[in-house]
UniProtKB/TrEMBL annotation:
InterPro entries: DUF998. Keywords: Membrane, Transmembrane, Transmembrane helix. The chain crosses the membrane at residues 52-73, 82-100, 106-125, 137-158. It comes from the Bacteria. This is DUF998 domain-containing protein.
């Protein structure tokens, strides 16, 4: 059985690309009214904002990418795939619970927190303890990846508390979360190819 389905080869690298293009487009539409250093991405998706539909579409697209990658990443453990899918679903649900134009929103914050936690935990939950596991799914790699994401969350929390570079911290954090599935998929593809090579060589010798 293939370690990764073909559609995950498309969906996994698309997630970070769509995310970055989405927030850059939204920021461009908002112009000088938006500060990407001190304001979060959610501000761009707030009701009444110029980039509302752009960011809402971006969140739905990125969430769909997570769902497809979770479905196609067969080498990962089922709990990890389920967590990634849950994170993707949370991203899609943000379209139903956008941030308000001013002030906070409990439903929005709750969905964001759940989505982040699931995407931060999936590397650990999806790890593969076998000796020949792809590098991206090995326990040490998975724990390191998850730990770094939580460190990024701590940075974001500090910036949010102090009113500092919240936007920078959030972009770094969400980009890392979106990139990691693509890295794991890449290592699974490399592992699959290395496993197929001995068989190919045997066929060549037999002919």
């Amino acid at each position: 059985m293939r370690l990764v389905a073909w559609w995950a080869l498309v969906s996994s690298p698309c997630a970070p690309v769509v995310l970055v293009v989405g927030w850059e487009t939204g920021a461009t539409l908002e112009g000088s009214r938006y500060d990407p250093v001190t304001q979060t991405i959610s501000v761009l998706a707030a009701e009444g904002r110029t980039g509302y539909w752009v960011l809402t579409g971006t969140l739905v697209a990125v969430g769909t990418c997570y769902l497809l990658t979770a479905w196609g990443l067969r080498a990962a453990g089922p709990r990890g795939r389920l967590a990634m899918a849950g994170g993707g679903l949370a991203a899609i649900l943000l379209a139903l619970f956008p941030a308000p134009r001013s002030g906070g929103s409990l439903p929005h914050g709750f969905v964001v927190g759940i989505g982040f936690s699931l995407l931060a935990l999936w590397p650990v939950l999806g790890r593969d303890g076998r000796e020949n596991a792809p590098w991206g799914l090995r326990p040490a790699t998975s724990i390191t990846a998850s730990s770094l994401i939580w460190v990024g969350a701590l940075w974001f929390g500090i910036e949010l508390w102090t009113g500092g570079a919240v936007g920078v911290a959030e972009r770094a954090l969400t980009t890392a979360q979106a990139l990691w599935p693509a890295v794991v998929v890449g290592t699974c593809v490399a592992r699959q190819r290395s496993a197929e090579q001995p068989g190919e060589r045997s066929d060549e010798r037999a002919t």
